[in-house]
Amino acid sequence: MEEDKAIVQFLTENNFKNIVETVSKLSKSYITLEDLMMYREKEIKNKLKKQRELCECLNIDILSKIDLCKILRNTQGSRCYYDAKNERPIVSTVILSNDAEEQLQKIYIKYKKCPEKKESFEKKKN
Asked: What is the pLDDT of residues 63-96, one digit of tens each?
């Protein structure tokens, strides 16, 4: 009961939209605010076949799941916040054929001259 109040207060302070239904489902599974703060986002919305996600197990609707993840990502002290702040960006590698690379190089050279042309037009204008 006391834990329900803590979760309700936390969700209310963070403008959660579907508090009553979500808290009811969390409390039936004995999930405390402390537990919620320790869940990773992938545990909340995991889509692996081997593991059912928390929200799916508790029949929490998708909008509430999105809202919950958003709130936890922005709450200092939560595992989602920590993971979001320490996430490394993934840089894609693009492999080009020789023809594509030559075309990109030509485009780069062509547009590299644009600032010079702009400057030239402005001088002629004045």
From this structure: 788 888 888 888 888 888 888 888 665 566 667 7
3-state SS of 72-114 is: HHCCCCCHHHHHHHCCCCCCCCCCCCHHHHHHHHHHHHHHHCH
For residue 126, give the amino acid letter. N
Of residues 94, 85, 80, the one with CA closest to residue 40: 80
**Entry pTM:** 0.53
Domain around 121: 92-126
Q: Tally the domains of the chain.
A: 2
Q: Do 26 and 52 belong together in one domain?
A: yes
Cα dihedral across residues 13, 69, 83, 51: positive or negative = positive
Q: What sign does the dihedral 44-47-48-52 (CA atoms) show?
A: positive
Contact 29, 39 (CB under 8 A): no
Q: 67: which DSSP letter? A: H
Measured between alpha carbons, how far apart are the two ends of the chain, in Å? Answer: 76
Q: What backbone phi and psi angles, to 5 degrees, belong to 102?
A: -65, -40
